[in-house]
Specification:
heterodimer; A: about 270 residues; mainly alpha; MetI-like fold; 13 helices; about 0% strand; flat; B: about 280 residues; alpha/beta; Rossmann fold; six-stranded mixed beta sheet; about 35% helix; globular; transport (chain B); MetN_ABC_transporter-like (chain B); nucleotide-binding (chain B); cell membrane (chain B); membrane (chain B)
Chain lengths: ~270, ~280
């Protein structure tokens, strides 16, 4: 295997570069988490607005969703990076100067706006899949719109929207690689581009990049699956997280523990 | 039919304060269309305070639509509905039919409770939370108050030990009994029962009906009932209205309607349901 002949040396390079790669990895993780949180907030806000009975909320939400969904991430970044700061350049008195001066924050905004607009559709769609009878019961109990959404509709829609949000979050993670074009922000992909020079693209991108991004996506997926299981359990469907995670079936425990020691068991439970 | 002519031209004054004589529910020239399909046309009737009225008739005759209109689950296409003499959805002002304020509609709606065919309990809450949610957050009761009331209602519907259960762990009959408790927890003046036993196993229908009989016996709540349980209708109601094609074909005391219906359509319908 001629192809892999240089790889022992590449791993040595990798070891030497590990600090820079970890820095890049940390930036990617931060972009994904902050971008994901912002996207979630925007998705819920726009999704609820788009699903509300009031035209005054629905119309602006639709416009925002279509605009930010339609703009490509690179173009959006370009605008935030180079056009938006002009406002502050010509009007030095404007507040929030710190935000436009931080290229990292602009990256978070670009990711949040773009994927938030996608997520808004997932939120709106999952609201409509909550059975009509549930909405009618809230009307029969005279609940206000914010009240019924918060206490009845959203908790049920939540379980339905998680798979779509998981998809979008994984997309966002991979989309965050576009941040390598942002000045002063060196995410994991930017560092991989550096690593490529002393090694080759097969080692840096096709191997290290593939493994790391895959593992990050896996973490997101597992975390979201746990959230989904929890949400479903709260609706009375499926086992609780504890039951899923416990290695042994519950019924076995009383048999293996010594008889007549319920107190010990309860203190052990308390310690945990 | 009640008030056939006065309704058409003159308006009952919406400002009239509710007195003992004011009907709790009044339909004036009510019309309901779904697209081109006219479900209710020129419907006029009144329900007095404490009166229990059962609506019978074939499917598609508009009975359920009437309940849904009172609960504001459907938009009224024409005419007026008054609750305690006050317009529920639209009023006549300056010769025009204009929608009432959301605030007024909400205030009237809290006087109305509904039990659905499919129970519609909230699966993300326990039984107790299902019952106390609206009393606490809509009526502004304290939690202690609402919980105490919920427990006594659960006692009343025969489920005192199910407070912490989740709705999905209950049988259909149990869920419907919780739904009745939930509606009663709001202290409604008007209780709408929409085919509450149609989705239940035959053997638990009796339990649910007995609970409703007891509610009828022990309270003064006005009831508007849609049911296929003719025995229940006969026991509980003061008045039975036979619907067909969106119109009232015949109405009267249950004894008279069930034993000696005057209209041919009623005879045919009752013959079919009662299996004569």
């Amino acid at each position: 295997m001629e192809f892999f002949e240089d790889w022992p040396g590449y791993f040595q390079v990798l070891w030497n570069w590990s600090d820079r790669l970890l820095d890049g990895l940390w930036v990617t993780i931060q972009l994904s988490i902050y971008g994901g949180l912002l996207a979630f907030v925007i998705a819920v806000a726009l999704g609820l607005m788009a699903g509300s009975p009031s035209l005054w909320l629905r119309a602006p939400a639709r416009v925002l969703i279509e605009v930010f969904r339609g703009i490509s991430l690179v173009v959006l970044l370009f605008w935030l990076m180079y056009i938006l700061p002009l406002l502050w350049m010509y009007n030095p008195g404007l507040p929030f100067r710190g935000i436009v001066e931080s290229t990292f924050l602009l990256g978070v905004f670009a990711l949040g706006l773009n994927y938030g607009a996608y997520g808004a559709e997932a939120v709106r769609a999952s609201l409509t899949t909550v059975p009509k009878g549930q909405w009618e019961a809230t009307t029969a109990l005279s609940m206000s719109w914010p009240h019924k959404i918060r206490r009845v509709i959203f908790p049920q829609a939540w379980a339905l929207m998680i798979p779509s949000l998981t998809n979008l979050w994984v997309h966002l993670l991979k989309g965050s690689a576009i941040a390598y074009v942002i000045p002063l922000v060196s995410d994991f992909t930017a560092q991989l581009n550096q690593l490529r020079r002393p090694t080759d693209i097969w080692f840096s991108h096709a191997f290290i990049g593939l493994v790391i991004y895959f593992l990050l996506a896996l973490v997101i997926t597992v975390f979201m699956q746990a959230l989904e299981a929890r949400a479903k359990h709260k609706l009375g469907r499926g086992p609780s997280l504890r039951e899923i995670l416990s290695p042994a079936p519950k019924a076995v425990i009383p048999e293996t523990s010594p008889a007549g020691q319920p107190q010990q068991k309860s203190t052990a439970g308390g310690e945990r | 039919m009640p008030t056939p002519t006065e309704a058409a031209g003159t308006q009952p004054s919406p400002a009239a304060s509710s007195s003992a004589d004011t009907p709790v529910i009044e339909f004036v020239d009510v019309e309901k269309r779904f697209g081109d399909n006219v479900v209710l046309k020129d419907l006029n009737f009144q329900v007095a305070r404490g009166e229990r009225v059962t609506l019978i008739g074939p499917s598609g005759s508009g009975k359920t639509t009437i309940l849904r209109l009172v609960m504001t689950l459907e938009e009224l296409s024409g005419g007026y509905i008054y609750i305690d003499g006050q317009p529920l959805t639209h009023e006549q002002r300056g010769g025009k039919r204009v929608p009432v304020s959301k605030k007024q509609q909400k205030a009237l709606r809290t006087r109305i409770g509904m039990v659905f065919q499919q129970f519609n309990l909230f699966p993300n809450m326990t039984v107790l939370e299902n019952i106390t949610e609206a009393p606490i957050h809509v009526l502004g009761q304290t939690k202690a108050q609402a919980v105490q009331k919920a427990h006594s209602l659960l006692e009343q519907v025969g489920l005192p030990d199910k407070a912490d259960a989740h709705p999905t762990s209950l049988s259909g009959g149990q869920q419907q009994r919780v739904a009745i408790a939930r509606a009663l927890a709001m202290d409604p003046e008007i209780l709408l029962l929409d085919e509450v036993t149609s989705a239940l196993d035959p053997e638990v229908v009796g339990d649910v009906l007995n609970i409703l009989r007891e509610v009828a016996d022990t309270t003064n709540v006005t009831m508007l009932i849609v049911t296929h349980e003719m025995g229940f209708a006969r026991d509980v109601s003061h008045k039975v209205m036979m619907f067909d094609g969106g119109r009232v074909v015949e109405e009267g005391h249950p004894e008279q309607i069930f034993t000696n219906p005057s209209h041919e359509r009623t005879k045919k319908f009752l013959g079919a349901v009662l299996g004569h």
